[in-house]
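Minutes, project check-in
Item: structure for the 324-residue chain
Input as provided by the requester:
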Amino acid sequence: MAQGGYVVTQPGGAERLEWVASAVGQPGPGQIRLRHDAIGVNYIDIYHRMGLYPLPLPTGIGVEGAGFVEAVGSDVTHLSIGDRVVYAGGQPGAYANVRLIQADRAVRLPEEITSQTAAALFFKGLTAQYLIKSAYQVKAGEWVLLHAAAGGVGIVALQWLKHIGANVIGIVSTEEKAELARAYGASHVIIDKEGNFSGKVREIVPQGVDVVYDSVGKATFTASLDSLRIRGMMVSFGMSSGKIPPIDLSILGAKGSLYFTRCTIAHYMASRTQLEAGAADLFSMIAGGIIKSGPVTNYALKDAPQAHRDLESRRTSGSLLLIP
C-alpha cells in the first residue's frame, strides 16, 4: 500500500474506514516518526469509529502499534533512530504504515519481545494491569467475574489473575471460547448470550463475587450487579453491547451497598510515570512466561474493515493484528 492511513470522516460501520494516501513529514518537538511492524486492533477502535467515544472528525483510527523509530524530534532524548518501540493511547492514527506520535507515549521494547507480541499485548496488557492492580486490587483467594473471558483483554486478565491466585468465573458466548477460557486460567466458565448469568454465578459462589470486570455494558449491567457480594465492586470498562442507560444510584444500596466505577485506560496511564510502571510490570510478566498472547489473527493493513467486522461479530478470540 502507498504511504498513508485509515481515517473516519463520518461515524458508522466498518465501511466508514477510508484509506487516505499521504506523506509523513519530519517529527516536530516531542514527536517521533514510527514505521509500524504490527498494529493492534482493539474494541476502543470500534467505539471511535461508531462515535460512541466521540472524536473530532475527520480522525485517524487505532491506538496501539509497534515498530521502529525512523526520526526523532529535536527535544526527544529517551529514544533514538532505530529503536524498537511500542505505544498505546494518544491521538488515534495507528492504522497506518508510518505515522508521527508523541514520544512520551512510546516505550522501548526489550530484545526478547517481538513487535508482533508487543502489538498483540500492550494495550490489552496495560488494561488488565490497571483493572487488576488499581481499579480493584485483586488478592489471592478472591472471586472474580470476568466478561468476554476469551477476548484479547480477557485472556491476558485470566493469566494474570491465575498468577495472583484468584478464583475466576469467565463469561463467554460459545463452547469453543469456553475451552479457551479454561485453558488460560478460568476456574469456572458460563456460556451466556442473553445476560441471564447471575443465578449460575450464585450457584458457584452463593455469597456473590468480590469484583466484576464488565466490558459488555448494557446487556450485562443488571446481572453483573446481581452477581456481587455485599459491598462488592463493579468495574465497567467497555460497552460492546451498548451504553448503560441512566440508573437510579439507590440501586447500588438496594443490592448490597455496592461500589461502581467506570474506567478508561487514558486516566490510569495518563502520565509518563504511570505508563512506564505499567509497561515494566507487563514486560516482566511476558518475559517470565506468565502472560502469553493467546490466539492471534493477522490481517493485512488493507483489510482493516474486515478485522472490525470480525471483531464486532464475535468471530474472533484473542488478539487481532494489522500487518503493513
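Outcome recorded: The chain has two domains: 4-121+269-323, 140-262.
No further action items on this chain.
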